[in-house]
Amino acid sequence: MGEVRLGGALLSHYDPADLGAYVGYLPQEPTLISGSIAENIARMSLRPDSDKIVAAAMKAQAHELILNLPDGYETRVEDNTVGLSGGQRQRIALARALYGDPVLLVLDEPNSALDLEGTEALNAAIRAMKAEGRSVIVMTHRPMAISECDRLMVIEAGCVKADGPRDEIVRSMMKNAGDIQRTLARTGEIT
Predict the structure, then answer these.
(1) What is the signed CA dihedral for 18, 21, 27, 29, rounded to 10 degrees?
(2) Where do the ABC transporter domain residues begin and end (predicted)?
C-alpha cells in the first residue's frame, strides 16, 4: 500500500478545508455554479482576488472569451446555463482549477469538450504548470490528452499495467497492439 504526499507531507496532515488551495481540479463534465463568471473562477471565495481571477483566466486562455460575454467577468451563470458551449464551460472551469496557483492540477478527461483552440490552451496551461515546477495529473482515454505528459501510468481493472516515460509506454503499447493485430490477421479473426 502506498501513500499520497503533497509538498512532502501526507495528505492526511492537511486540513481538508485548506487542501483546495493547493489542488486544482478540472472534472470531465464541469459544472458552473449560480453566480458570476468571476465568482465561479474564484471558487465562490468570500474574498476573491480580482487579479488572481484574471491571471487564472489568462493561463486558461479564457480571458478573451470571458470579455466577449455580455457582462464580461460579471456575466451571471444561473443553473449552469448562459448560452456557453461545452468548450467554453470547460475553459472557465480550467481557469477555476488554476485559480490561486495550485501546486497540483488534476485533470479528468480535460479535452472531452474542447475544440482545437481549447486543446491548445489546455496544453499551454499544462506546460506553464510544469515550467513552474508544479505537478499535473491527467486521467484520460484520449491519446491527444497525453501530448504534454512526461510519464504515463496505464491502469486496467484497478491494476497498474505499465508505468514509465511517455514515449517508452506508447511505443510498447503500439508494439503490443501491432502484435495483437498480426496474430488476429493470421488466425483470420480480422482482415
Answers:
(1) 100
(2) 1-182
The tens digit of pLDDT for each residue in 54-105 reads 999 999 999 999 999 999 999 998 865 568 888 899 999 999 999 988 999 9
Asked whether the beta carbons of 23 and 11 are under 8 A apart, the reply is: no
Segments forming the whole domain that contains residue 126: 20-133
Residue with cell 457582462: 71
Total domain count for the chain? 2
User: Which CATH number characterizes residue 78's domain?
Assistant: 3.40.50.300
**Does 90 share its domain with 119?**
yes
Q: How confident is the model at residue 188 (pLDDT cuts 50, 70, 90)?
A: low
Active site residues: 109
Give a yes or no: residue 11 inside a domain: no
Set of cell numbers at residue 24: 486544482
Model confidence over 115-128: pLDDT tens digits? 888 888 889 989 99
DSSP code at position 159: E
Rounded to 5°, the CA angle 50-51-57 comes to 90
